[in-house]
């Protein structure tokens, strides 16, 4: 789906499935410089760098100097303002924010009507918005929205960022997970992180959630919390 949307933007053609044409039409209605599936990367010093390089054998591979890479589905730049959108094909999910993402509730356009829960992908909104600020110094304000392909017209998942006001907090938020990983590595103390990946993808057989479907995990967690 993402590849076809990219082709539709670049070739100015319509999407093959009319059910999802509204996503393309909505993006095209914006005014400004439009880009689709833009890969952005930064190095450990927070400087923009190529996400990929060509090695001595002529093969394209990931840039080893890239500390963070993100592919942004839709970007539209109009002067000092940008609209950035991330296309989602699954169900909308919500979760309790952690200490590093709680501030994002106040950057949500509606103040997160679902608070104290918030959009489960809010951290991605922060990280991709920060990547955009780092690559485009002229952008001062930004709307970052999640577009749910199967829920036409959903306008709730919009975060508003201001470079001057939010930059340092955005950096701290992006750094939170790597710092947690570094601390766990230094202390060799790894917390369980149950998710939908446990069933097929996680190799940690010592974890109590290993090989379990997420429906089973939710029951285990509920029982643990006495619900």
What does this structure look like?
This protein is of the alpha+beta class. The chain has two domains: 2-187, no CATH class; 192-227, no CATH class. The chain is built from five helices and ten strands; from the N terminus they run H-H-E-E-E-E-E-E-E-E-H-E-E-H-H. It has helices at 2-11, 21-28, 122-135, 163-187, 214-224; strands at 33-42, 48-49, 52-54, 60-62, 68-78, 81-88, 94-95, 118-119, 141-148, 158-162. Helix 3 crosses helix 4. The longest helix is centred in the last third of the chain and has 25 residues, at 163-187. The mean pLDDT is 89.
Short recap of the structure:
With 227 residues, the chain is an alpha+beta fold. The protein has helices at residues 2-11, 21-28, 122-135, 163-187, 214-224; strands at residues 33-42, 48-49, 52-54, 60-62, 68-78, 81-88, 94-95, 118-119, 141-148, 158-162.
Strand content: 15-25%
Secondary-structure element string: HHEEEEEEEEHEEHH
Distance N terminus to C terminus?
39 Å
Mean pLDDT: 89
- Overall domain count: 2
Give the helix proportion (percent range): 25-40%
Strand order of the largest sheet: 2-1-5-6-9-10
- Helix and strand composition category: alpha+beta
Shape: globular
Main beta sheet strand tally, sense and closure:
6 strands, mixed
Total number of beta strands: 10
Uncertain segments are: none
Q: What is the count of DSSP helices, taking H or I runs of 4+ residues?
A: 5
Radius of gyration: 19 Å
